Amino acid sequence: MRCFSLLSAVCAVALTGLALVEVAPARADDMVTIVIKEHRFDPAEVKITANKRVTLLVDNQDATSEEFESGEMKVEKIVGGRKQIKVMVGPLKPGRYPFFGEFHEATAQGAVIAE
């Protein structure tokens, strides 16, 4: 009986401790997905938190390859047809950072906006 009471007390303390531990929520802007479809970026503009490192997941849904490129963000990567790549950017100072698809530059235009 005494063992049961001690176990109950330990469990109560543990549960109370768990309730007090604040778990940091996953931030939606830690990874941003940019879809390439019909040689266009969707969304064409993405907002991220300034001065924070962010992963861009570039999902090419077209059958042909594209080159995701940005001189301002120092990125140049090929995304195969129906493939995905991850690109780490930042931390970026507040501002606008254009990107484009070099293989379809007339339509594939976008920008990262760091705020």
Automatic annotation (TrEMBL):
SUPFAM superfamilies (alphabetical): Cupredoxins (SSF49503)
Pfam families for the chain: Cupredoxin_1
Boundaries of every EfeO-type cupredoxin-like domain copy: 14-114
Keyword terms of this UniProt record: Signal
Keyword Glycoprotein: no
Signal peptide annotation: 1-28
Name the UniProt record assigns to this protein: EfeO-type cupredoxin-like domain-containing protein
Organism of origin: Azospirillum thiophilum
